[in-house]
Amino acid sequence: MLTVDSIAGCLTGIAALVVVIIATLGAQRVPAVVVAAPVAALLILLGLTDLSAAAAEVTTMAPTIGFLAAMLVVADVCAREGVFTWVGTVLAGWSRSSPRRLLRIVFVAAAVTTAILSLDTTIVLLTPVAVATARHIGARVTPIAFSSAHLANTASTLLPVSNLTNLLAFSATGLGFLGFTGVMLAPWVAAIVVEYLIFRWYFADELRASAPVETDAEPQPDAHRPTLLLVALALLLVAFVIAEPFGVPLAAVAGVGAVLFTLPALFRSPVATLRNTITAVNIPFLGFVATLGVVILPVRDGPLGDWIGGLIPSSSTLLGILLVAVLAAVLSNLVNNLPATLLLIPLVAHDPGLVLAMLLGVNIGPNLAYFGSLANLLWREIMHRDVAAPTSREYLRLGAITVPATLGVAVVALWGSLQLT
């Protein structure tokens, strides 16, 4: 029987992870869980992990997966009830046909959407709206589309609910909802400001020029502000803050919120609403997340995990935070940020500051390359449908400029925040 400490066992564990990661590239056609689940089962049969360890890992991740499912439903309700149609109207009106102004507004909209409803909502729902708005006012699409992609990653550091990586690592920080947000606020603002300044410089020519208005582009629809739904979102955030000190799990609050968000539509059209809700939950993706936690176990418990663990500093000094953030960013672009997060959490859990530094790396680092996060791959698919997606070289060129700068200022800001806590 193979063991995780043997050379054959180590190579097998790494190969299994690579196979699962490659499966994510075709996830739009075949759900990645179709590959990940058999691979996880095979690793158990080979003895590289055992059933009890796999069950414990899935049990640990269950609240996070439940929370994610609930927030997917909330985001779907927001889309169906016209929140993003209204956002498109606002973007077009406030831009006053100015590409620079539109870029600034999209930065704000993407940052807020990512922070509250997660980066996937920004990619799936805001990107098409932003691209359509750029076409509508005659602005170049590229800087606007890139802004939604980059902000989905960069702006996902603020709240525990902004990214699946945050949710997975939240308990390891030892912080409450407000505590997490308070420490990450300065890095969040610093990274976004620097990213915006780089975009203004990098896309200066495209932001000065106007694109030909597409005669066949659909006009921006007029939309009424969905006030009740916006208030409901605000109340859901308040509920997260209030419930957490009383020991009420975030997953429970999100679950109640998802039910309340769907009730009006459920009364109007029960069958259609149930169908839409089941689709929004995205069970294949949730299954992939759960099985990925099992697939990573042999790598994390083997020599490679030990070697990476040896690189982790003992405390959150400025140099220590920088080292962990850079290591997390590099791993994200090598194995994707979700496996990187699952690999690193136990290795940095001894110091909350290092956990937060790891999150900066796995959230901002994926802006370097398409493969850095599942959100990047999803953005590329959406761009292929709407316009020609930028090539990997174009994505890398912009990422090579933005990632070092935004990650650097975020690390310094995090270190400053930690000194004040």
Q: Give the ordered list of helices and strands.
A: HHHHHHHHHHHHHHHHHHHHH
Distance between the termini: 49 Å
Number of strands: 0
The assigned structural class equals mainly alpha
Largest sheet: none
Q: Helix tally?
A: 21
Strand content: under 5%
- Give the radius of gyration: 21 Å
Number of domains: 1
InterPro entries: Arsenical_pump_ArsB (IPR000802), Cit_transptr-like_dom (IPR004680)
Keywords: Arsenical resistance, Cell membrane, Membrane, Transmembrane, Transmembrane helix, Transport
Family: Belongs to the CitM (TC 2.A.11) transporter family. Belongs to the ArsB family.
Transmembrane segments: 6-25, 32-55, 67-94, 106-131, 177-203, 223-243, 279-299, 311-334, 354-378, 398-418
Keywords:
transmembrane, Cit_transptr-like_dom, mainly alpha, 78% helix, 421 residues, single chain
Topology, element by element:
Layout: H1 7-25, H2 33-45, H3 51-80, H4 83-95, H5 99-117, H6 119-137, H7 141-154, H8 164-173, H9 177-202, H10 204-208, H11 227-243, H12 250-268, H13 270-281, H14 283-295, H15 297-301, H16 303-311, H17 318-335, H18 337-348, H19 352-364, H20 374-386, H21 392-420
Helix pairs in contact: 1-2, 2-14, 3-12, 3-13, 3-14, 4-5, 4-6, 5-6, 5-7, 6-7, 6-20, 7-9, 7-20, 8-18, 8-19, 9-21, 11-12, 12-13, 17-18, 17-19, 17-21, 18-19, 19-21
Pfam family, one: CitMHS
Transmembrane segments: 6-25, 32-55, 67-94, 106-131, 177-203, 223-243, 279-299, 311-334, 354-378, 398-418
Domain Citrate transporter-like: 25-350
